[in-house]
């Protein structure tokens, strides 16, 4: 395993991270520090509060460990070893971290060790945070804790005692976000074989004997144990009056703001009875920090946008008209509708028809009868006595669809755009131009190579357009690709001029994919952690669209749309797909992106969308 080595190098021994003073007698210590009082509660319980005589403004928590017990004998060897390990961890191994309240400095005498820590005045135990936690503040605090734990694990240090009393928090009302520090390193141990970072010239064997480094003498603390402790802390943030060691049989009483993304993380690291039973099934700390619930927490000044989005999304679930306040300045302005019958103010002649493989509800624009539109009515709740077609839809999926179509994707000739969006508290109507004359499945039967290449090129460029704005289609099926007449004097069955993508309802925006953006698109104020979680659970990647394009190419070459199971069971080779009808370049492209066994196996990297656009078969000139 490759290790990161700190750049600085020392000829003999690395300097300590914590200042160390040496004195002869214990009395010399009290000449420098003044006694303030005993600390009875909190993580510093049992310690003494002191101030430095030269700087009385800052209080320290003083822990005194003596090599001699009260009877004049040497202290227990195990206690001494544990104390020595603590000193090594805090003074030689762990650098400073803003969320770790490590030693401030140490003083050694002939018989005692004086360890001083910042008392963190103004900080409270995290138990005071649990009742006032919100989704935003819980995420902010948990990200700091997880980052500090990852920092310790990188240096091979396991805390071993991440309980509530060892975590302090500070939150100044209405201004600063929450801030925390981890204390209580009395049980911390260092596992040299787990570290991927270390200080140059630091060798543990220089400080501990071999038998002290063995697995048998080490305390039974693990990285997974720290992650489990983080899960217990998360549980207490999300649940009212939580006891992570005693989960009620009726289930926890979750706070009303708890989201699906937070629940998902809790089920992956939470306490036994709610999270995984075995420690080996827990997420590693890197996976915790990559979880969607934590992924979208931006630094200030984006914090205000996140707060506003959270507040509006809570309202949106009970009042869909709030979407107008979230998706501000959409490409197609929203129109408010008091009742469904008000549609007749804009559209008339509502009827049902069968086009291609779909049963559609169509209407005509009152002012422009030639504009025939498909209408989708999406309801927040099912009306009494409604048919199965009136089932309520997932509010988050609907929000995601409108965000992608109205705030992210600009128009494209091969994508059917929306015509109108009507909003109401309990329903939303979406209208798009009905330009369906046939589907891709009908086209496949008549496809010549030139027609196939023209159609496939247009689809590839449409997908590249979507990917350039960070959107993955996720639904490239023959029923979602239709052909329309570009010109009224063309015979569509002969010319098949323009394929168009419809029903962009399963598409997702994913971070890191976009190379372009439209004005006024701010992910912090529009994209929720639940949407990122939905995309992750659907395995949403740009490669998914390319594999779907490979399936489309195979169907064109074969002459029939097939399910993936039918394709995998075929005894044919690529050369036996309608031999002589398509060129070698078409078969070569199939080998790069086609479904297995005609193309790469699953999870084998494919060419990118730009490489696909540059393939000779796609680039080849078409006849006029």
Automatic annotation (TrEMBL):
Any one GO molecular-function label of the UniProt entry: ATP binding
GO biological process, one term: intracellular signal transduction
Top-level taxon of the source organism: Eukaryota
Domain Protein kinase: 33-332, 349-618
PROSITE patterns xrefs: PROTEIN_KINASE_DOM (PS50011)
Gene Ontology cellular component terms for the protein in this record: cytoplasm; nucleus
Protein name: Protein kinase domain-containing protein
Source organism of the structure: Marchantia polymorpha (Common liverwort)
